[in-house]
Amino acid sequence: DIDKKHYTLKEEKELVNNTENIIFKHIINDNKIIVITKELISSELDEIEKSNYFVSLIENGKEIFVSELMTECFGEIICIKIYNNDIYVLGSRFFVIGLNEFFVARYDFSGNMINIKYYGGNLNETPKSIEFVDNYVYVVGDTVSERGEVCTNNKGSDTFIFKMDINNKLRMSDVKILGEEGNDTCYGSFVYNGFIYMIKHYILNDIKYPTIKLVKLDKELNLISEKILDSGFNHNILGIKLENNEILITRTKDND
């Protein structure tokens, strides 16, 4: 809706060349937009699509910079956030189907890449959101990996929160796995009063419908509290946000 308010499709096509390759947009304000584009380079012999990826800053319809993000890979952009006047890009880089790692890339507003770090286990990580507290980066998601920097502590998939130090080139500081006995899926996160909140659901092996849970952690990843929000229904979480000190969850619910 924000995109539609500020930019028509025709205006977007005037922002950068080859705009049919735009895969992600982030509105900063009425005058600035960050765009992720890709340049397809794969051949018929490649197992998965390969592209080169670029980050662009557009201000008042003019391209301020274009910087390289990733090369010769298949990638997915999850979100872009601004923290302390730097640009952070969260995404995934795939090697083959079912094998990937997540990344965090940091740029200044001149287009210089300050850092990029890749993390993951031996199989598949799905990052969902990125948060910031006191010069630390927190990536929230779920994993099915069995070993590595991020791995499950139960059978199936588990949710995780991964902590990185901004002042130490985004190096890993800590990781916490928040797994139930069944399969966990993370839907997102937010920060309030210096605490990190995660929304997830889990499905136990002998239960048909998922249980939605709100998890609260401090900046050291100590578990503060957990609260079950609902269970016994089939849920589809569409969005999460914090507004006026209230958690707003948009979802569908049925018991079919």
Task: Describe the model.
This protein has helices spanning 2-6, 9-13, and strands at 22-27, 32-40, 51-59, 62-83, 86-96, 99-107, 113-119, 125-133, 136-143, 158-165, 171-178, 183-192, 195-203, 211-217, 223-230, 234-243, 246-254. It is mainly beta and 256 residues long. It has a 7-stranded antiparallel sheet with strand order 1-2-3-4-5-6-7, with no helix packed on it. It has a 4-stranded antiparallel sheet with strand order 8-9-10-11, with no helix packed on it. A hairpin with a 2-residue loop joins strand 8 and strand 9. It starts with a helix and ends with a strand.
Core attributes:
256 residues; mainly beta; seven-stranded antiparallel beta sheet; 2 helices; globular
In a few lines, what is going on in this structure?
By secondary structure, this protein is mainly beta. Helices cover 4% and strands 62% of the residues.
Give the SSE layout:
Elements: H1 2-6, H2 9-13, E1 22-27, E2 32-40, E3 51-59, E4 62-83, E5 86-96, E6 99-107, E7 113-119, E8 125-133, E9 136-143, E10 158-165, E11 171-178, E12 183-192, E13 195-203, E14 211-217, E15 223-230, E16 234-243, E17 246-254
Antiparallel strand pairs: 1-2, 2-3, 3-4, 4-5, 5-6, 6-7, 8-9, 9-10, 10-11, 12-13, 13-14, 14-15, 16-17
- The first-to-last residue Cα distance is 31 Å
Written as H for each helix and E for each strand, in order along the chain, the element string is: HHEEEEEEEEEEEEEEEEE
Radius of gyration: 19 Å
Q: Indicate the structural class.
A: mainly beta
Helicity, as a percent range: under 10%
Shape: globular
Read across the widest sheet, the strand sequence of neighbours is 1-2-3-4-5-6-7
**Model regions low in confidence, pLDDT < 50 over at least 5 residues:** 1-18
**DSSP summary, beta strand count:** 17
Kindly report the oligomeric state of this protein.
single chain
Which strand-content bin applies to the residues?
Answer: over 45%
> What number is the mean pLDDT?
83
Largest sheet: 7 strands, antiparallel
Count the DSSP helices: 2
